[in-house]
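Q: Two folds, back to back.
A: First:
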Amino acid sequence: MKVAFATDDGVRVNAHFGQSSMFAIYNLTKGSSELLELRRIPDIAAQDEMGKIDSRIEAIEDCTLIFLMQIGASAAAKVTRRKIMPVKVPFGSPIDEQVKRLEEMLQGKPPMWLAKVLRAEEEEGAGVNGSNG
């Protein structure tokens, strides 16, 4: 499962979704986690609010969860329509602590919200891999 973290420094969750300059992308499995990349968002001066939201959604469209400090209602609606679940955490939460917490949840019995996300991801994967064209 790929997870994005809204960050300005690659270390802490310290950004509002619409203003985040980058996303730390991690891959998590039941037994491990790894930082895949830091995806920087290009600063386009003339971009309106919807353009900012859309460019950020494009940057994380392969992720299942997005950890962030804050997200507006319209952005949250767009994100969830793309089957990405926004997870609000306190400002400055260390990314490595959030990753560790997720790993522990995956190894045990995940909370209902995470189990639902994982089930949806499995169904989507089965649909993509199970079709012949």
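A: Second:
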Amino acid sequence: MAGRPYTSLLLLLSLLLLITFSDIAEATKLRPSDCKPKCTYRCSATSHKKPCMFFCLKCCSKCLCVPPGTYGNKQVCPCYNNWKTKEGGPKCP
């Protein structure tokens, strides 16, 4: 009986980890055909939609990944996050 609370706690922690990493799995398993809808959402909050879409689609086609949300979360997609311009700034929105 003493092990039962630990089993419940382990099950709860496993469930929380699964929920936490589900966004990562969603973001990293794209096909090229998935890029346009993901980039449309990614660029939906910016006032510079045309350049955002251009670079997002370029990054998605190379990396097959678009971070979740409209801003940030780039750590989910290392390729997307690490692709830089000649000046060293981020290439992907």
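Q: And?
A: Residues 4-28 form the longest helix (25 residues).
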